[in-house]
Amino acid sequence: MNGIQESLVRSPQMFPHLLDPRSDSVSFVDLTRAEYEKASFLDGRILTPQTQIRTLPWRNVAEAVESAGLKERCGLIFHIGHVGSTLLSRLIGAHPGAFALREPGILRTFAQIMSEPAGMPATWSGDDIERRLSSMLKLFSRTFDGGQLAVIKATSFVSELSEALLARAPRPRAVLMYVSPESYISTILGGPNSREEAKILAPSRLRRLHKRLGRDVWSAASLSEGERLALAWVCEMSGLAAAAGSAGERVVRVNFDEFLVDPSSLLGIFRHFGIDANAAEVRTIIDGPDMRRYSKAPEYAYDRALRAAVLNQARELHGHEIRRGLAWLDRAAEQFAQVRQAIALAASPTR
Predict the structure, then answer these.
(1) For the residues of 150-165, what is the DSSP string, one character each?
(2) Residue 315's CB: how many other CB atoms inside 10 A?
(3) Running DSSP on this structure, what letter comes out for residue 117?
């Protein structure tokens, strides 16, 4: 291995932020431990005008990973979006036994390639995708300190791959995060940015849900906003339900509303990942600043009470759309087992 390859496998400091299928190359940026801790998104948003990017051919990356004998050893957080996954990642990352990575952009690339094969390079086979995914997960599993577990929080639509990722030979463990349909719809309607994001994502979510159901059923143009948000909820939740059904005890379910009532359940999450935490450490983490900040932008104050106020205001202003969304969900559940399974997952007791 040359010097760059040795640096690549020695620590997480060389972070793979972009996989380019067209050139079959991987681009890396240098990230310090503090920069990992600060970042809410490990995608293009970590780049600045001063960022130096090093791009290596895929074959060189693969050779370095293989020569170093890197292993896939990571935990995963899958979620449906806007359900506290960034907060949970920060809380987990506050323990010395964990190394938290939030939303690596490369996982989104794999989700897009694997859910829409037409976008896959013509020269790639399924084995080619698997080799690249395995190497990326091995790179994401690197930590700064020995004995740490890398815990990767995926982007919401990467949940489409949750079943496949949990079926991998290392048999990783995962957290599945969600809220009830009513809480989710209210959350999105409570913020103009989240409403706009949901509008943009609606066509792709509709395609993904139709693919899971096996046929086209709805038209986005015929759905009201509340109905589109109910569709968004069931699109993401159906992916989690499939993962929960196949991974068994290797997943732990976290309803964010329940977590906020009793955040001491964080201890069970640490133990689920095999991280040696005790009640005193968990109490110190919970009493720290993260529970009182907006996790995606920690410079802003945000807590359980403020979240409840936002939800209640959304219910007052948009009650009609919330009811329309829930009614749409009931009708969809009458038709499709996948929708019923998603609803059942959200209603099941968490542990």
Answers:
(1) EEEEPPGGGGGGHHHH
(2) 16
(3) G
